[in-house]
Amino acid sequence: MVFWVVPHSSSPVVRWPSLKNRLQSLCPSCSVTFYLNDQPSNYPASPVYLLKFFCLDRKGLLHDVTQVLCELELTIQKVKVTTTPDGRVLDLFFITDNMELLHTEERQHHLCKQLDAVLGDSCISCKLRLAGPEYDCHHGISSLSPAVAEELFLFVLSDKETRLQALSSDMTKLKKANVVVDNSLSPAHTLLQIHCVDHKSLFYDILRTLKDCNIKIAFGRFSPNSKGYRDLDLFIQQKDGKKFVDPEKQNGLCSRLKVEMLHPLRVIIANRGPDTELLVANPVELSGKGRPRVFYDVTLALKALGICIFSAEIGRYSSSDREWEVYRFLLDENCGFQLSSTLARNQIVDRVRRMLMGW
Questions:
Q1: Does the structure show a pLDDT above 70 at 166?
Q2: Does the record's keyword annotation contain Repeat (predicted)?
Q3: Distance from C-alpha of 142 to C-alpha of 233, rounded to nearest angstrom
C-alpha cells in the first residue's frame, strides 16, 4: 500500500517517526507461521489511566487540555467534566497511551509538565494513576429522551429548516454522492466507484464501512481533491472471495456507504431540563473502536465560538442494533449566544459540524 500524504491545515506539524512506528505496530508480522492455530491472537489491551485535575475554570480550558493530550499521542477513552458553583472545574480523563510508555516516570513527568504549562497557577491539583473500577462506572452514557434519541440517530438528514440538524445552504452538497457497482472489468473482483464531496476522514469512513461489512479490498485508487470532490475506485470481494453479483446486496452496500459518507457524525442541540445540551454521536466500529479526535474538534469549535462548557461526558449508547459513541456537552448560558434561539443553535451546530468535517 502506497499513500501520498500531506499534513492537514489544522495540524501542520506531523511526527513522522512516531507515525511510522504506529503503522508498523498495526501491521501483521512478516514472519511465516508453519502451524495452524484455531485460537485468535489475543493482544493485551492498553492500560487505562485516570488523569484527574481540579482547577479554576476559564474559556477554552477543556480544549487546551485536550490539545496537550492529543499532541502527546494520548487517546481519550472517557471523560467526565463538572463545574462547581464557585467557578472551579473537576475533570476526569480516562486515557490510553499510543506509545505505551505512560507507565514510565519520564513519560508521566513530561505529561504533568505540559499540563502545568497550560493550566498555570489556576491548577489546584493534578493526579495520574491507573484507572480502577470507576472506569466501568463511566463507560455508559446517561439516558437519552426518546425524542432526542430519534433525532440524533436518524439515518438521513431532514430537509425541514425546523429540524435541529438543518444544514446551511453551502453544506447541503454533502448530501450528494454517487456509488456505482461494476462487475464487467474484472473476472474475480467487483469494482466499486465512488464520487462524493471531500471531507476530513472520508477515507476512514469508507474503509470503516467496508471493514464492518467484512469486505476485502484487493486494489484501490484514491484520487486527489478536485474542486472539493473525490473519486475512488475499489476492487472488492465478499468475505468468501466471491464477487457482488446479487442486486439486493449491491443496493444494500451502496445505501450503507452513502449513509456513512454523507452522515458520519450526528450533531444536535437539545434541552436537558432548563439547560442547553450539545450532542455529537458517531457509530462505533465492530472492533469496538470509536472515531478519533471528535472530542478535540468539538471543544475547538466551542472555544472559537467563545462558549464555555459547564459539563461534559463521553459514553456508549445502543440504538437501531448499533453501538454509538455519544459526546454530551452542557453549554454555559453566559456566552454571546442566545441559546434559546433557533438561529443561534443552528449556528453552533453548523460550526461544530464544519470543524468535524474539516470544512
A1: no
A2: yes
A3: 42
